[in-house]
Amino acid sequence: MYKGNQSVVAEFVLLGLAHSQSTQFLLFMMFVLLYLLIVSGNIVIVILITTDPHLHSPMYFLLANLSFIDMWLSSVTTPKMITDFLRENKTISFSGCMSQVFFLHCIGAGEAVLLVVMAYDRYMAICKPLHYFTIMNLKRCSVLVLTSWTTGFIHAMSHLVVIVELPSCGPKEIDSFFCDMPLIIKLACMDSHDLDILMNADCGVVGIPCFILLLISYTYILRTVRKSTKAGASKALSTCTAHITVVMIFFVPSIFIYVWPLNITWLDKFFAVFYSVFTPFLNPAIYTMRNKEMKNAMKRLINNYLDSKDNLY
Predict the structure, then answer these.
(1) How far is CA 237 from the centre of its chain?
(2) Which of 42, 27, 8, 7 shows the shortest CA–CA distance to 288?
(3) CA separation for the pair 244, 263 (Å, rounded)
(4) Which of 13, 21, 106, 197 is the S-S candidate for 152 at Cβ 3.0 to 4.6 Å?
């Protein structure tokens, strides 16, 4: 460990995504629009599933929870990034930095487990349909969702207890738009090799088993779909394709950030933006555009709104 002067860091400096004023303004406009679409899109999904009786099933209950998680996953980093585009000094307090690390990993790990739960739900619906509603009842779904949040909390705390005690004595610049564990470890006054391995292992304990379970689940599902009738197979395949797409856009960036880092700055920033902004943006788009029931529920919501508006006049 470094034996020089050590001090408590009051704040960190975020270098952000760009230095040019014109580029920052363009990024500001783009991410404001994306964030508004993320929040509104996921809120619409939650409202649709909550209010439409046709969507009161285990699959849509889990989808509503996924939308809720996605909304908060983006909200951990995106609002700060947006405001920093308009600021010359892009700083974040020590407590704010630790909060970003905690909530990012809590929500991220929770979503990873929730995606496994959603794959299990589809496995039961397609491979064991006669037992589906017996096993995937509201109580079981609620317990599984609570398990995902508990896993995320434990995972985030395991990160937080390590980084809050890291010795600091040198630079406090973070070459990104938010605080994250790999970036904070680089600033510590000690040999970070063992810590990097510990972080990769900690993330791998959550990420790799979840990814393997997802691959196994969808392999069984696709094998079962091949033996189904043409109509049933088409519907199941459409749903599973949406799920698999969401899994890939969530896990691929997170694996390259936390489990198998490439240590290429611009690529790390790209994966970080994709993971924290584009994934929550794409999820509602994928589920609404590829899901017939969601589109029908949207039409019913619009028609009910128009009818109620007409009745006022």
Answers:
(1) 24
(2) 42
(3) 27
(4) 106
Q: Quick one: tokens of 148?
A: 């995902």
**What CATH number does the domain containing 259 carry?**
1.20.1070.10
> For residue 80, what pLDDT band results from cuts at 50, 70 and 90?
very high
pTM over 0.85: yes
Is 5 within the bounds of a domain?
A: no
Q: How much is the average pLDDT of 34-54? A: 90
Report whether pLDDT(127) > 70.
yes
Domain count, the chain: 1
